[in-house]
């Protein structure tokens, strides 16, 4: 028997680095972001910086409270009905619709009519109609998925015993 005590040292904190492919992709994304940042800031760095700060303030001070209140109202309504799971069928199409509106807002609102016509030779007057149609299709598809889900859950529980 040996009198030596072996002490096991707990391993130190390990960095969650991931696989080599993940690291390579992360480094490539950083390199691409740096390139885009340098190119973007080369022409009008003050305007870009003001736009980013303004967008962050608009989001944090105006938009976040608005859509948080809308989500709370949706959850309260769904909770009153007894089906909080239904909220997802409203959240997903609303999120996609708002994302499309955010990305295409200048064109949807008609603020870029001249620039759009000069660049493409087309009119931008259909963007609002198209966005509304896409939004209706998103909510329609969500309603269809909800109906299928409800029908499946009813058929899996079997006929009601009376």
Question: Which terms summarize this structure?
Answer:
single chain; 162 residues; mainly alpha; 2 domains; 75% helix; flat
Task: Explain this structure.
The structure is a single chain. The protein is mainly α and 162 residues long. It has two domains: 26-82; 83-155, no CATH class. It has four helices and no strands. It has helices spanning 20-81, 88-108, 113-120, 127-157. The longest helix has 62 residues, at 20-81.
Ordered list of secondary-structure elements with their pairings:
Blueprint: H1 20-81, H2 88-108, H3 113-120, H4 127-157
Q: Mean pLDDT, nearest integer?
A: 84
Radius of gyration: 26 Å
User: Overall 3D geometry?
Assistant: flat
Number of domains: 2
The SS-based structural class is: mainly alpha
Question: In terms of per-residue confidence, which ranges show pLDDT below 50 for 5 or more consecutive residues?
Answer: none
The proportion of residues forming helix, as a percent range, comes to: over 70%
User: What is the number of beta strands?
Assistant: 0
